[in-house]
Amino acid sequence: MATLWDEREPRAALAEIARHFHARGWMAGTAGNLSVRNTEGTSFWITASGYPKGQLTPDDFVKVAVADGQVVETCKPHDRPSAETSIHQVIYRHDPTARAALHVHSIAAVLAVERHAPTNATALALPALEMIKGMGIWDEAPHVALPLFENWRDVPAIAREIERLFDPTTPTLSALMIRRHGITVWGTSLQQAYDRIEIMEYILDYLSRTSPTT
Ligand SMILES: [Zn+2]
User: Fold this and answer.
1) How far does the centroid of ligand 1 lie from the alpha carbon of residue 110, in Å?
2) Which of 17, 88, 104, 154 has minimal CB crowding within 10 Å?
3) How far is CA 186 from the centre of its chain?
4) Contact 74, 157 (CB under 8 A)
5) Number of helices followed by number of strands (H, E) in the chain
């Protein structure tokens, strides 16, 4: 039987997942960030800033408190958490069921939004592909939209805008997109987040290859 990601030591699992995503072109150079929350729900391990994602080791992570974003543990003294930690923090703070959040920079996601979403659109309608079931949506003709956010240089400003997603309830689709940047997907387990980011990338890859009229 396959070993699920959640059965592995969290940092070792994330380091291997980063290699998978790097090999697929979703984490070029040092791009992207991955996190897993502890069982108590109070903190999460996240990729440290500045390390190449194709070569991560279990020591290249920093533990951050969900409540205030403060670093609570490092493997190496001078490591800092990912510059996009505040986005993970918002997800964990507002969705108590979220155990893992994965964020990648893929070409397909950027192109899909550029091709199919008007400049000021706040969401991208997703096609009713079979694969949407993999996101936990089983409607016969689903109307699902991927929330879109502007890519401000001030990452906490993006995080503040993302907070609106969770007001008043957790969204149906556990994914969001920052324009010209990439998607973030979360799940109730690391395995679910991993499976769902593959599903979202499949759907966005499909969209990036279709014209807006099809
Ligand atoms: Zn990013």
Assistant:
1) 12
2) 154
3) 6
4) no
5) 5, 9
Q: How far is the CA of 31 from the centre of ligand 1 (A)?
A: 6
Q: Which residue has the tokens 């387990």?
A: 189
Retrieve residue 59's tokens. Answer: 């020591």
- CA of 25 relative to ligand 1 center, distance in Å: 14
Between the CA of 19 and the centroid of ligand 1 the distance, in Å, is 16
Q: From ligand 1's centre to the CA of 178, what distance in Å?
A: 8
Instruction: Report CA(155)–ligand 1 centroid distance (Å).
Output: 9
Span from the CA of 139 to the centroid of ligand 1 (angstroms): 31
Please state whether beta strands 182-187 and 100-104 pair in parallel, antiparallel, or not at all (unpaired).
Answer: antiparallel
Q: Give the CATH number of domain 5-208; options: 3.40.225.10, 3.30.390.50, 1.10.630.10, 3.40.50.300.
A: 3.40.225.10
According to DSSP, residue 48 is labeled: B
Domain regions of the chain by residue span = 5-208
CA dihedral 15→21→25→29, nearest 10 degrees, is: -20
For the chain, percent of residues with pLDDT exceeding 90: 93
Residue 103 carries which side chain, given as an amino acid letter? Answer: H
pLDDT tens by residue, 107-153: 999 999 999 999 999 999 999 999 999 999 998 888 999 999 999 99
Given a cut of 60, is residue 214 above it in pLDDT? Answer: no
What contacts 211, CB < 8 A, 6 or more positions away?
Answer: 115
Q: Which of 83, 52, 47 is nearest to 63 (CA)?
A: 47
